[in-house]
Design goal:
Layout (H helix, E strand, L loop, with lengths): L1 H19 L6 E2 L10 E2 L6 H11 L21 H8 L21 H6 L20 H12 L6
Antiparallel strand pairs: 1-2
Helix pairs in contact: 2-3, 2-5
């Protein structure tokens, strides 16, 4: 039994760590994004197709998260509803604007995703999950910095 434990545990650890690693490359063969499943950094991402897909894929719209209005913000699978709830809207929890068009650096959404929200303003998003990888985070920032269009 000890031999099995000594062999099996390291193998399982390698599998878990490999599955949890995030990619920092401009393309990431993760789920979602395009029909082939390869996600890419886009200069001008679509809110409906790219940004809402991130929220859905990462579970933000789930009933145990913002699908239930956690933290004063409701996120759904509807791009137009999400846009109306984020752009130029002040968080009731922090008093900061979730998305400031053309200013990802000062948008509360990005601060929460990068864990720059300041003390007393909760945890990094997504709570309990891994941080967004470079592809998802860059697409969100690019969408904001190109005007946070409802496209």
């Amino acid at each position: 039994m000890k031999i099995l434990h000594r062999v099996l545990c390291p193998v399982l650890m390698c599998v878990v760590l490999a599955a949890c690693s995030a990619s920092d490359s401009p393309t990431d063969p993760g789920e979602g994004g395009t029909p082939s499943g390869t996600r890419t950094i886009k200069a001008n991402p679509s809110f409906a197709n790219d940004i809402t897909e991130i929220f859905t894929r990462r579970g933000c719209a789930g009933s145990n998260c913002h699908g239930n209005g956690a933290g004063g913000l409701t996120i759904s699978t509807s791009g137009s509803a999400n846009h109306a709830r984020l752009v130029n809207v002040t968080s009731p929890m922090s008093g900061e604007v979730y998305v400031i068009p053309n200013d990802a650096q000062n948008s509360y959404l990005v601060k929460k995703l990068e864990n720059r929200q300041g003390s007393g303003n909760g945890s990094r998003m997504p709570v309990g999950g891994s941080a967004l990888d470079n592809v998802d985070l860059t697409n969100i920032k690019n969408w904001i910095n190109t005007g946070a269009q409802n496209n």
